């Protein structure tokens, strides 16, 4: 059984650590959203551009694109610094996105996110990165709905263990924590005027709500 350390923090902070590979999962058309939400406009920019901005300090930047993703438009949204990878196991969701990105992450750490979490911000990723420890396989936050595996950092040391997990048809990204020692952080209380970090844009109404926070 994994050993999970829970920490409490009062604010997002931490040094800028550029030894991360960043990966954004772009899943193509969304049934709940009605279109490819990665390209939906938020604050005058495509939704995926907000995730890319938060992770712009990473040394290597990847987009894992599912079949059906509009690659030329996504490239234009994130810029030439981002390399596009085809999802190696389409249909397996974010767990396959992690597996695909880890093939290119070298021996370091991977920050994994999705296009529909536009309000995380760079300081959130610095905060996670600062909590890494030797021998730990990942660091994640516990948001209002529980663990946030699509806003987490993963060690490349996970790579040998993932094929066995992927052989389980029902396995998902949250099951990765079973594989070893993990750091789980309680997110700081939301301050007045601060956006909800884990606002998940699944519908046009969610997009409108995020837009109100961005002014």
Write a concise keyword list for the protein shown above.
215 residues; single chain; Spore Coat Polysaccharide Biosynthesis Protein SpsA, Chain A; 6 helices; globular; two-stranded antiparallel ribbon; alpha/beta; 11 strands
Short description:
The chain has 215 residues and is an alpha/beta fold.
Secondary structure blueprint with pairings:
Elements: E1 4-8, E2 20-26, E3 41-42, E4 45-46, H1 47-54, E5 60-65, H2 71-78, E6 82-86, H3 94-102, E7 109-114, H4 122-129, E8 138-143, E9 146-147, E10 151-155, H5 162-166, E11 182-186, H6 204-213
Parallel strand pairs: 1-11, 2-5, 2-7, 5-6, 8-11
Antiparallel strand pairs: 3-4, 7-10, 8-9, 8-10
Question: How would you portray this structure in words?
Answer:
- This protein is of the alpha/beta class and 215 residues long.
- It has one domain: Spore Coat Polysaccharide Biosynthesis Protein SpsA, Chain A.
- Helices cover 22% and strands 24% of the residues.
- The protein contains 6 helices and 11 strands.
- The strands form 2 sheets. Strands 1, 2, 5, 6, 7, 8, 9, 10 and 11 form a 9-stranded mixed sheet that branches. Strands 3-4 form a two-stranded antiparallel sheet.
- Mean pLDDT is 86; it is low at 1-15.
């Amino acid at each position: 059984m994994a050993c999970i350390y829970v920490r409490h923090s009062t604010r997002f902070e931490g040094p800028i650590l550029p030894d991360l590979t960043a990966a954004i999962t772009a899943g193509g058309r969304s049934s709940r959203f009605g279109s490819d939400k990665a390209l939906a406009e938020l604050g005058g920019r495509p939704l995926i551009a907000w995730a890319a901005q938060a992770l712009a300090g990473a040394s290597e930047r990847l987009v894992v694109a599912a079949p059906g993703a509009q690659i030329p438009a996504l490239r234009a949204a994130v810029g030439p610094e981002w390399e596009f990878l085809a999802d190696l196991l389409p249909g397996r969701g974010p767990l396959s996105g992690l597996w695909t990105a880890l093939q290119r992450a070298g021996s370091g750490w991977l920050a994994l996110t999705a296009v529909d979490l536009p309000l995380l911000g760079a300081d959130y990723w610095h905060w996670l990165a600062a909590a890494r420890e030797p021998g730990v396989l990942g660091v994640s936050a516990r948001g209002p709905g529980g663990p946030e595996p699509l806003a987490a950092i993963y060690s490349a040391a996970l790579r040998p263990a993932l094929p066995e997990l992927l052989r389980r048809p029902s396995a998902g990204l949250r099951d990765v924590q079973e594989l070893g020692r993990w750091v789980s952080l309680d997110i700081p209380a939301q301050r007045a005027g601060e956006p909800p970090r884990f606002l998940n844009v699944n519908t046009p109404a969610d997009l409108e709500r995020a837009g109100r926070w961005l002014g």
